[in-house]
Amino acid sequence: MENLKFVKEQLKGKKFFGGGKIGYIDVAFDWLNLASIIEEVAGVKLIDEDNFPWLKAWMELFSDVPVIKQSWPDQEKLIIKYQFVLKLESNQTSMSSAQEEVKLFRNWSSAYALRIVWALKIKGIEFHTIFEDLENKSPSLLHYNPVHKKVPVLVHNGKPICESLVVLEYIEETWKQNPLLPEDPLDKATARFWAKFNDDKLLPSIAVVFTTQGKEQEEVKVPVMENLKFVDEQLKGKKYFGGEKIGFLDIVFGWLANMASVVEEVAGVQLIDEENFPLLKAWMELFSDTPVIKESWPDREKLIIKYQLRREGYLASSVAK
Amino acid sequence: MGDEVILLDFWPSMFGMRLRVALAEKGVNYEYKEEDLSNKSALLLKMNPVHKKIPVLIHNGKPVCESLIAVQYIDEVWKDKAPLLPSDPYQRAQARFWADYVDKKLYTLGSKVWQTKGEEQEASKKEFLDCLKLLEGELGDKPYFGGETFGFVDVSLITFYSWFYAYETFGNFSIEADCPKLIEWVKRCMEKESVSKSIPDPHKVYEFVLQLKKKFGIE
Q1: Which of B65, B73, B134 is closest, CB to CB, to A185?
Q2: What is the pTM of this model?
Q3: Are A170 and B92 in contact (CB < 8 Å)?
């Protein structure tokens, strides 16, 4: 408005900017004919008769000049073009602000971080990923998770949330589409119970199998079998832990669908077989086949190499003892 | 139509105490059943076949296990009184994070304080105090971890107070000396009836730990 005021003052006492006839400045300002297009597409009033009477008068006079009029681009076409441009602009702004809004700190292999990736994808949330080298943690990670200094960390609008199960509940409560947890408090408590069971019992028991061999491994395999039996039973009469579709508990147990076979291969042990755990086996295949899950798996070859090295390290240090 | 609420518990358990506090906050009537952990009841084994542990909340015949899960359950079912978790998702995440921190750290470190001696004990004491100091920092100037009102993190942590005297005596140190603001918070919480009536006398807990040490031959 201020800029237009300056322009209108240039027309004081004049027919055209150039004086009695069209001059250099008139040609430079000719684009102001687009003003009406901008006003229509962006829904804004810029040049009205009350505020800018000389400018309005000049626009009419200028447009009426034959050599000008015959060169105007098609008004309808212009409106369509700028409507499209406006739409594109606003999409890009909302996309980039969504990407700035949600950040996930993870590394390439962490099963805990994968939970968050799946939850965000299932809910269709745009997010930006920051891959961490856990041997050389970034200042950002240490800033966002000073207590545990671990991944995953979700940063939403600059605010960090740590611990994967806490993050999952946060995601569930913040973005309500495609709910992952049941509504009923008892069902919710049951889901949370099994999630804790996975993190406190199942996963650590499998980790122990992974770090042992021979007779010792046979012994520590026993609690794993018991734990897996409990989990297998939870699938009775259900397609997924979440019922008809993937839910919170599928995401928590999801690491089994990919990592169990890695542990089995690297540690030379059979854990989840069809005979003993038919429901679990079926679920693993179904779960893995889901596109949003499948596309996020870490590279299997890389995982084998990583865990082979790790197992060698454990076995070497236990021999040294 | 009445709710039938039973709590399977063991009097010195700081985890069981959390449910007592939460139920008291909500004004829920319940039947308290003391378990003998050396001779667990058929009911306990039926209601918690996975872990066979207390506390177990049995609501209209259905069990809820794991203390923080049960506290959340209590908060969600009896939601019209004394909300323990805030309504904002980010605040809820912070509350869950700190309650999880208490669970991950305090029990194990506290146990080491009374079960070990010498260098190991000194190291455990230091770690234990560091955790309490971190929690004290998180409390800041707020009256409660929940802010103006007693909340989820307060419930999770206050029950450990009943074990402080035992930790301090066996570890030969003072928690108040290092964490005065935390002890102020303890006193504030203990003014609430829901807390003071749910938590046993710390001296009784000390006697219990003494018996445990004798039983397991821990010097």
Answers
A1: B73
A2: 0.81
A3: yes
